[in-house]
Amino acid sequence: MPNLAGKFMLRMGLKRLLMAVPSLVGVVIVTFLLTRALPGDPAAYFAGPAATKEAIEQIRVNLGLDKPLIVQFGRYVGDLTRGDLGNSLTTGQPVGKEIRERLPASAELTLLGLILSISIAVPLGILAATRPGSLIDHACRVLATAGVSLPVFFTGLILVYVFYYLLGWAPAPLGRLDVFYSPPPQVTGFYLIDSAIAGDGEVFLASLKQLILPVATLGIFSLAPIARMTRASMLAVLASDFVRTARASGLAPYTVIVTYAFRNAMIPVVTTLGMVFSFLLGANVLVEKVFAWPGIGSFAVEALIASDFAPVQGFVLTMAVMYVALNLLIDILYGLIDPRVRIEA
Fold first, then answer.
1. Using an 8 Å Cβ cutoff, are 191 and 108 in contact?
2. How far, in Å, CA of 275 to CA of 227, rounded?
3. Model-level pTM?
4. Is-contact 74 29, C-beta < 8 A?
5. How far, in Å, CA of 218 to CA of 105, rounded?
6. How wide is the angle at C-alpha 219 spanned by C-alphas 213 and 224, nearest 5°?
7. What is the dihedral of CA 283, 285, 287, 290, to 10 degrees?
8. Long-range pairs for 157-162: beta carbons < 8 A, 24 or more residues apart
9. What are the beta bridge partners of residue 87?
């Protein structure tokens, strides 16, 4: 069985990577064309309002924007093959370096938001399915409806207004760490992990406090689909013949629900988790702006406002690669959860 699982993971990984190549090529082409179609002239923006036409044209030549689109695209693809995402005109730094420095901030926020929503939504969905029509079931429906209806930026602003402005319980929404603290020595880029490794309890608590409101914002946003899918999938499995047989055999209710029912209900839930994670990657952009979070989302928005092409292209390509990796992970989880998937593969 371990050998079969290993072969499945290798075969699925190679298959997914081959299928991802055309998608990534399409992302590169579409992103390049869309950035050129956006209103605004980078040369005019960086030359300033008082610049002459000759100065603007000189900047355009220096940036290579005077060349035909096909030539610009060829240069862009050539740089990508060397791992060069270009330089940001707003910061003057390589885009790859900026993304590497900012990605841990976005990843820490997104992963904690997903963990928070899973820890609440999955047990809530299971309880709602095992007690249909009860108060817990109605609470699950209300919570799911509220989570879907509230825009993520609105939820973030409400949390800031209540817990920071009115109650004063939360710190100022100004980034990953209060100005009175220094970042921990970088190991993973995750402040919670790095401060724990360094044994700095004060920085750990300070970074945790800064995370509470943005993580809660993402958790509320992603809680609804996970809870609804868990409830629906559990209801379908609990009505199946093998669950009735397990109950008739005298097994404990906990064993029937967790060992038999939930494991068979996990595949739709895992699929939903993958979609929710991809939604969170997009919602991160708004949350980062609300909480002044120095992640790649806010970096891309600032570059977009300035008509800075390279960071926007690098951001979209990074998101595409992460989405491909996420789909690969989901396919592997399918095989680990259900042996029939490995046998069919």
1. yes
2. 13
3. 0.81
4. no
5. 14
6. 145
7. -150
8. 157/290, 159/213, 159/216, 159/217, 160/213, 160/290, 160/291
9. 94
Structural contact between residues 256 and 243, judged by C-beta atoms closer than 8 angstroms: yes
Q: Which two tokens stand for residue 270?
A: 């895992």
26-83 pLDDT, tens digit per residue, is 888 888 887 777 666 677 767 666 777 777 777 777 777 777 778 888 888 888 888 8
- Please name the residue that has the structure tokens 């895992």: 270
